From TrEMBL:
Active-site annotation: R146, K170, H241, R244, H267, Y276
Domain Core-binding (CB) stretches: 1-85
Record-given protein name: Tyrosine recombinase XerD
This protein's GO CC annotations: cytoplasm
A GO term, aspect molecular function: tyrosine-based site-specific recombinase activity
HAMAP family linked to this entry: Recomb_XerC_XerD (MF_01808), Recomb_XerD (MF_01807)
Gene3D superfamilies for this protein: 1.10.150.130, Intergrase catalytic core
Similarity comment: family membership: Belongs to the 'phage' integrase family. XerD subfamily.
Length: 295
């Protein structure tokens, strides 16, 4: 099952923007888990049961692994099987009935409004890739799409005049997401004269195209945003997912209600969106401490 591990780690890197250290930890935990499954001749996700997972965690405990490390390993296993289910590599999730230990959620990295403007400013200009990159960045920040949703947009999914786009999210669920004027303008400029230069054969259905005229990959866009953030002088370790976090945080900071943000993000459960209320609280606390005369 190592091929699935490679796909999962790439997903964590590109979609979730996890740090190198976190990825290495997940890789170690899951490699041990897959070795355990290999011993039990579980060569396909469909063959793995909840009992397998429980016995693996029990073995970790018997080996003397600390509770925190066991919790991290179980978290990695749960994410792995959830990924297999969502991506249709499996029809079941053996960890669904296993209780998750309560852990402290880490707040996601977000950009300030000024940092977002600096990032967008790196794609100013009329060059082919400046116009394309500007359109992609504007759409990502305007809609909060996942990077996989962004690169999978097709020409027919975008209605510039109405100011909406249609995307297919997790679980094959479609949702309509509004776009602001900046994103609509950026897409219009891209479609007006740049996209046709990339679509040499004139038969590609995807909105955003690579340098060679094919569908933009998640990894390619991850490289673009890394390059642009470096040019903007942003020192934070950002990924495409950082703009999704920033989209949600800035909406809430400016008065949007949590339910509306949940719908735009495509979260099935409101609890997934509630992490952003913690982000806004923490930022407000920092602002208060920094600027209040008796902070």
């Amino acid at each position: 099952m190592n091929e699935y591990l490679d796909l999962f780690l790439n997903y964590l890197l590109v979609e979730k923007g996890l740090t190198k250290n976190t990825l290495e930890a997940y890789s170690r935990d899951l490699s041990v888990y897959l070795d355990f499954l290999a011993e039990r001749k579980r060569t396909n996700p469909e063959n793995v049961t909840a009992l397998d997972v429980v016995e693996h965690v029990t073995r970790l405990k018997d080996s003397g692994l600390a509770p925190r490390s066991r919790a991290r390993a179980l978290s990695a296993i749960r994410m792995f099987h959830r990924f297999l289910l969502v991506e249709n590599y499996s029809v079941s999730n053996p960890t669904a009935i296993i209780e998750t230990p309560k852990t402290v959620n880490r707040l996601p990295e977000v950009l300030s409004g000024r940092e977002v403007e600096s990032l967008l400013a790196t794609a100013k200009g009329d060059g082919t890739f400046e116009v394309r990159d500007r359109a992609m960045l504007e759409v990502l920040y305007a809609t909060g799409l996942r990077v996989s949703e962004l690169v999978s947009l097709k020409l027919r999914d975008v209605n510039i005049d109405a100011g909406y786009l249609l995307t297919m999210g997790k679980g094959e669920k479609e949702r309509l997401v509004p776009m602001g004027e900046s994103a609509r303008t950026a897409i219009g400029e891209y479609l007006a004269g740049i996209r046709i230069l990339l679509d040499r054969k004139g038969d590609n259905e995807y909105l955003f195209l690579s340098r060679l005229g094919g569908k933009m990959s998640r990894q390619a866009f991850w490289n673009i945003i890394k390059k642009r953030s470096g040019a903007a002088g942003i020192r934070k370790n950002i990924s495409p997912h950082t703009l999704r976090h920033s989209f949600a945080t800035h909406l809430l900071e400016n008065g949007a209600d949590l339910r509306s943000v949940q719908i735009m993000l495509g979260h099935a459960d409101l609890s997934s969106t509630q992490i952003y209320t913690h982000v806004t609280r923490e930022r407000l606390k920092k602002l208060h401490q920094e600027f209040h005369p008796r902070g």
